[in-house]
Amino acid sequence: MKIHESLQSTFPSFSFEFFPPKNPEQQEQLLETILKLRPLNPTFVSVTYGAGGSTRALTIDTVARIKRDFGIEPMAHLTCVGASRDEIHETLDTLRGHGIENIMALRGDPPRGESSFQPAPDGFAYANELVEFIDGHYDMSIGAACYPEGHFEGNTGKRQDLDLDVEHLHRKVEAGAKFLVTQLFYDNEVYFRFVERARIGGIEVPIIPGLMPAINADSIPRIAKMSGATFPDHLMREVRARAGDADAVLELAVAYTTLQADELIRHGAPGIHFYTLNRSHATSAIVSALRLFRPWEVHNYV
């Protein structure tokens, strides 16, 4: 089923993001994670696309298997990096052949060592061009990424102007994006302010907040920095205080993200998209807790 149609009838929506496994050990871990998360009845799951399209075949294989073997609606990421129009056409034809109806259309990051994005010959320079191409050739539900704290170019360390960011986002929606998923964040006010700017800018499609539980005292703050997300000082202090106790860090991550997700949903977010890092424990505990203790009273949809 197309994701934008599911969002019209499912509230709140819970969805999970995975990366394609690169070896048998990672494959086993991913399959175990999917089996543990499947009883939570996710609205959809997404599978990322490696830098420079390096995991294209793995992404296709993974989403095809999720749909075929697990009966879960998958969404494949697709980027502009290193691919011509014909190559993107071929990838989309293959995905469609596997029954995939949902695409996350992304420009993609510049290859490591390059300071700016350069489109492939006969390729696309911007995500809105990729969205328009997909929408013009395929009957698919197209998602796009958005950045509550402004698009962060990791290679340059520069953050895009927030008003310009909304303008670029509006182009993606006009081109055919039916829903948006945010980059990870740890301060809900960032999301609420962003949604307000987007609505003022004429963007009316669902904006799904993306959350990543801070389950690792070393890697998660680094991931947040690479993503351009602000990691709050009070959370950093609590994580560092538990740095020698992995179980304590996990408990903190579950508690913090559960409270964060509950507030977002109560104030009208259409659901939560969890960046899982192919692990299930924190995400399973958070979603189970959210479903157990609250039928949500929605103030206003965002």
Explain what you see:
An 8-stranded parallel β-barrel has the order 1-2-3-4-5-8-9-10, surrounded by 5 helices. It has a two-stranded antiparallel sheet with strand order 6-7. The model has no long low-confidence stretch (mean pLDDT 89). Helix 2 (24-37) links the parallel strand 1 (13-18) and strand 2. The protein contains 11 helices and 10 strands. The protein has helices spanning 3-9, 24-37, 56-70, 85-97, 127-137, 162-175, 188-200, 219-227, 233-241, 246-266, 281-293; strands at 13-18, 44-47, 74-79, 102-106, 141-146, 152-153, 158-159, 179-184, 207-211, 271-275. The chain is α/β, with parallel strands linked by helices. The protein has a single domain, classed as TIM Barrel (Alpha-Beta Barrel).
Output the keywords.
alpha/beta; 302 residues; TIM Barrel; two-stranded antiparallel ribbon; 11 helices; 10 strands
Give the gist of this structure:
With 302 residues, the protein is of the alpha/beta class.
Write the layout of secondary structure elements.
Layout: H1 3-9, E1 13-18, H2 24-37, E2 44-47, H3 56-70, E3 74-79, H4 85-97, E4 102-106, H5 127-137, E5 141-146, E6 152-153, E7 158-159, H6 162-175, E8 179-184, H7 188-200, E9 207-211, H8 219-227, H9 233-241, H10 246-266, E10 271-275, H11 281-293
Parallel strand pairs: 1-2, 1-10, 2-3, 3-4, 4-5, 5-8, 8-9, 9-10
Antiparallel strand pairs: 6-7
Helix pairs in contact: 5-6, 10-11
Radius of gyration: 18 Å
Order of helices and strands: HEHEHEHEHEEEHEHEHHHEH
Sheet of most strands: 8 strands, parallel, barrel
Class from secondary-structure proportions? alpha/beta
